[in-house]
């Protein structure tokens, strides 16, 4: 149990810096048992109303928190970098197997623990991502989009009505199967698996937008060379005037290290770094990087 991480989540939530949904998810991810969360929330002094919002959400989300716990226990996902003896292929296979297990237990929570496995919360989080993409003028009816690490396809499906085509790729076969089950009949939306170590299979100049929503941390986890290769392949696959949006670049917890990587990729690939680690969302605490191809 990481009590310090749980306390930090509470502090950030009470300060209005993360949503109650993210705070509760972080407390579960920190390993706090249900009774400890209950006790800690009931001991919060009255303040600016955020403690009430948190306690209220907790009251209505007990089932969701249990689903997150069950999903985490089954997935056994860890965010540590590849061990010396572990090849990038082996790490990708390990992560994909963890997501295979996670999606079978709690699909919404498996792609976003802060959804607390509630489809309505996940839909609200998806709407804020799509609104940001629209504000950045990245979605239009003449655009072809790649959703890398698409999970159950919630972002890809939300983009399909507003774009010419969307391709969702994921390293986890069961995620792809779930995305197909949910959205397989949408005509301009396709799903498939990706090896997870590169994007070499993509044709040159075939997309206007490559989007990675909370999936790039696993690419980074597979090693610097794997992340570099993804950027090189994306630079080839994205048309002039297109972009690569990375929402959460890593789980290192070091924004400056993420910014250094983004800057290095921008220089190496001839991208313009248009958004450099912003926090544009209210519900989700994701960090946005946007590389534009002039
Ligand atoms: C936190 S989930 C996010 C899913 C989806 N983008 C969303 O936001 O709903 C991370 C996803 O990335 C996928 N993933 C992990 N490593 C990957 C890799 N190297 N290449 C492609 N997908 C990967 C996982 O299987 C999982 O579906």
UniProtKB/TrEMBL annotation:
Residues 146-246 form the Methyltransferase type domain. InterPro entries: Diverse_substrate_MTase (IPR051052), Methyltransf_11 (IPR013216), SAM-dependent_MTases_sf (IPR029063). It comes from the Bacteria. GO terms for molecular function: methyltransferase activity. GO terms for biological process: methylation. Keywords: Methyltransferase, Transferase. It holds the Pfam family Methyltransf_11. Belongs to the methyltransferase superfamily. This is Class I SAM-dependent methyltransferase. It comes from Craurococcus roseus. The lineage of its organism: Bacteria, Pseudomonadati, Pseudomonadota, Alphaproteobacteria, Acetobacterales.
């Amino acid at each position: 149990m990481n009590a310090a991480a749980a306390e930090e989540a509470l502090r950030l939530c009470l300060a209005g810096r993360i949503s109650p949904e993210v705070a509760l998810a972080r407390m579960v991810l920190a390993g706090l048992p249900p009774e400890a969360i209950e006790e800690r929330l009931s001991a919060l002094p009255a303040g600016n109303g955020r403690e009430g919002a948190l306690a209220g959400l907790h009251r209505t989300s007990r089932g969701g928190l249990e689903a997150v716990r069950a999903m985490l226990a089954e997935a056994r996902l860890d965010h540590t970098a590849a061990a010396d003896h572990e090849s990038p292929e082996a790490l990708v296979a390990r992560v994909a197997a963890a997501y295979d297990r996670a999606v079978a237990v709690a699909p919404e929570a498996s792609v976003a623990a802060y959804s607390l496995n509630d489809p309505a919360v996940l839909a609200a989080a998806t709407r804020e991502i799509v609104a940001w993409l629209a504000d950045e003028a990245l979605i239009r009816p003449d655009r072809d989009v790649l959703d890398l690490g698409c999970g159950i396809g919630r972002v890809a499906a939300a983009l399909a009505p507003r774009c010419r085509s969307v391709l969702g790729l994921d390293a986890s076969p069961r995620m792809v199967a779930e995305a197909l089950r949910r959205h397989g009949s949408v005509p301009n939306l396709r799903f498939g698996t990706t090896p997870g170590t590169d994007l070499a299979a993509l044709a040159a100049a075939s997309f206007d937008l490559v989007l990675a929503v909370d999936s790039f941390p696993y690419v980074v986890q597979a090693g610097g060379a794997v992340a570099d290769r993804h950027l090189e392949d994306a630079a080839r696959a994205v048309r002039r005037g297109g972009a690569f949006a990375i929402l959460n670049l890593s789980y290192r917890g070091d924004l400056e290290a993420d910014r250094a990587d983004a800057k290095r990729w921008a220089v190496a690939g001839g991208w313009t770094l248009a958004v450099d680690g912003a926090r544009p969302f209210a519900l989700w605490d994701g960090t946005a990087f946007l590389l534009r191809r002039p």
